[in-house]
Amino acid sequence: MMKNILQLIPVLFIVATIDKGGVYAFQLSPITSSTRCRHQHHQHQGSISRASIITSLQSSLDYHGSNTNDSLDPLASSSSSQSEANMKKKDLRTLQRFLEVECWKLPTIRTLDSTLLTVSDACKQINRIVQRAQTDDLYGAAIDPVTGQLAEVNVQGEVQQQLDVLCNTLMLRAFCGASNNAICAVASEEEPLPRSCADVMGYDTTNSATSNIFTSGEYVAVFDPIDGSKNIDSSLPVGTVFGIYRRPEGVEFEKDGLNLDSFLQRGTEMVAAGYCLYSATTVLVLTLGSGVHGFTLDPDKQTFLQTHPNMRIPDVGSLYSFNEAYSRDYNEPVQKFLKNMKETGKMGGKKVSSRYVGALVADVHNVLINGGIYGYPADRDNPQGKLRLLYESAPMAMIMEQAGGAGSTGYGRILDVLPPQPHSKKSRKGGDNDDEEFDLEKEAEKGIHVRVPTFLGSVENVFELDQFHKYYGDDDE
Ligand code: AHM
Ligand code: MG
After folding, report:
1. In this predicted model, what pLDDT tens digit does every residue of 303-354 receive, in sequence order?
2. Measured between alpha carbons, how far is 228 from 407 in angstroms, rounded to an integer?
C-alpha cells in the first residue's frame, strides 16, 4: 500500500536515523519501485549496518506491497465506498483535444498544435528524468561526447550538468522535431547562440532540398529547459519555461532559416507561452493568447488533463515571494515596499504571508493560484536582476497578463521591453568585409540572454510595487 501511495508522489525520500548512528536517505526508484540509499551523511558506528537498514526498509516496503494490490490505481486497493467516491477519476478534457480545438479556432496559431503536444511529451520525459536524478546518477558535470572532456562553462557562467544537457536536448528536439515543422529556430538558456532547426535535427544546411523542410517554419521558440535545477538535490520543485514568437516579416534569413532578429522581439509579439512544473503534481500551464489553461499529468495514463480551465489570478493577494536574504542589496523602492509590508503586516489590505521555493515556475505558480506577488529585483551584484527576459520573465509575464494579473520591471510592463538589438542586421555574418566588427556571440549574449528585474502577480499588488518605484525610484530607469 505504501508503495502505491508513494507512486503518486514524484520523488519520495525516506530519511531515517537509527540509534544515533547517522542519517540515511533512501529514494524510491520510479522504475523498479525499490529504495536506494542515496545520502549517507554520517558513518554508522553502532551495531546496525547500513545494509541491514536497507534490508529492513526494503522488506518493510515489500511486506506492505505484497499485502495489497501493486497496481498504480488507488481504487484497486480501496475497499471503502467513501474513498472510492472521493478518488473517482474526473471526466476531464485531454491536452490533445484542447490543442486540436483551440489551434483550429485561432488562425494565428493553427499549425502549432502538434508542436505543443510534442513539447508536452518532452515535459513528461523531463519529469521522469527529474524523478530519476538521484537513483540513476544523473548528477555531475556533463561529458562532451566528442572530446570526452568535461563540458565547458555555459553562457550563464555555470558548468553544465548532465541533467541540464539531457533536458536541453529533449526540448530542442521537441520544438524542432514536431511533425508539422512549425518552428524554424530555437534559443535556449543552455546554448550561447540560437540554433536553426535544420542544425538541431542534423540536416545539411548547405543543401536547400533538406533544409527547406525547416526554413519554412513560421515560428521561433525560446526556452529554459530546467529552471531552478539546484532544487533537484533537495527534492524540491523545478520547472520548464517556454515562449513562441512568429517570425517577423521582412527579415533577411540565412539559408538555414536562422536570424538573431527573429528572437529579439518584444514579449507582446509572443503567440504562445507556457511552463511545466515538476512538483507534488506535474502541471503544464499554457496560454495561446486567449486565457490561461492548466493541465495536470495523470500519473497512471501519462496524459495531461485540463484540471484548470480559464485560470484567473485574484486581483489582490497576500503572498509575497522574494529572496529576502538579499533585501539589503535591493534598490530603495523594493526595500521600502517590503518594509511597508512587514510593518503593516498587510499587502493589498490583506494579512501578508511569505513563500519562496527558489524555482521561478513553482513560486509563480503558487502566486498564480493564490494571488500576491513574485519578485526577483535588481540587487548590488545583479543590476538587472537574475532572470532572463526572453525565456523566463516574458513568457511568465504573458501568462500572468492572460490570467488577469500583471508583469512589471518596477518601471514598466515586462512585455513591452525590447531586447537589445544587434548593431548590424547581418546577424550571422561576423567578420564579413562590410561589417568587420560584428561579433555574433556578443550580440546574442546582449540580446538573447538579457536580464530584467521581474515582478509578477495580482494587479493590485504589482501596481503597489510600481507606485513605490514611481515615488522612490530613479527617474532615469
Ligand atoms: P537558473 O535558471 O540558473 O535555474 O536560475 C533561475 C532561478 C529561478 O528559478 C529562481 O527564481 C531563482 O533562480 C532563484 O535564485 P536565488 O537562489 O538567487 O533566489
Ligand atoms: Mg532558468
Report:
1. 999 999 999 999 999 999 999 999 999 999 999 999 999 999 988 788 999 9
2. 20
What is the rounded average pLDDT for all residues in the chain?
80
Note the Cα 152 to chain centre separation in Å.
23
User: If you write DSSP's letter for every residue of 97-124 in order, what string do you get?
Assistant: HHHHHHHHH-GGGGGGHHHHHHHHHHHH
Nearest CA-CA partner of 287 in 106, 16, 162, 420: 106
CATH 3.40.190.80 placement within the chain: 319-417+452-472
Cα of 156 vs centre of ligand 2, distance in Å, is: 10
CATH 3.40.190.80 assigned to 319-417+452-472: yes
**What are residue 23's phi and psi, to 5 degrees?**
-120, 130
- CA 285 from chain center: how many Å? 10
User: Which is nearest to 300 in space by CA: 455, 464, 122, 74?
Assistant: 74
Closest CA to 364 of 239, 207, 470, 272: 239
Question: Does 323 sit in the ligand 1 pocket, CB within 6 Å?
Answer: yes
For residue 422, what pLDDT band results from cuts at 50, 70 and 90? confident
Determine the residue of 374, 376, 382, 450 to mutate for testing ligand 1's pocket, defined as the one with the most ligand atoms within 8 A of the Cβ atom. Answer: 376
- Statement: residue 77 has pLDDT above 50: no
Percent over 90 (pLDDT), the chain: 52
Residues 6 or more apart in contact with residue 60 via CB below 8 angstroms: none
The whole-angstrom separation of Cα 353 and Cα 388 is 26
> pLDDT digits over 277-299, tens only?
999 999 999 999 999 999 999 99
Q: Report the pLDDT value the prediction gives residue 412, as an integer from 0 to 100.
A: 96
Contact 308 CB / ligand 1 (< 6 Å): no
Cell matching residue 60: 518493510
pLDDT tens-digit map of 100-112: 999 998 877 888 9
Would you say the CB of residue 321 lies under 6 angstroms from ligand 1?
no
pLDDT at 5: 44
Query: Which of 473, 476, 468 has its CA nearest to residue 336?
Result: 468
Q: Does domain 95-308 have CATH number 3.30.540.10?
A: yes
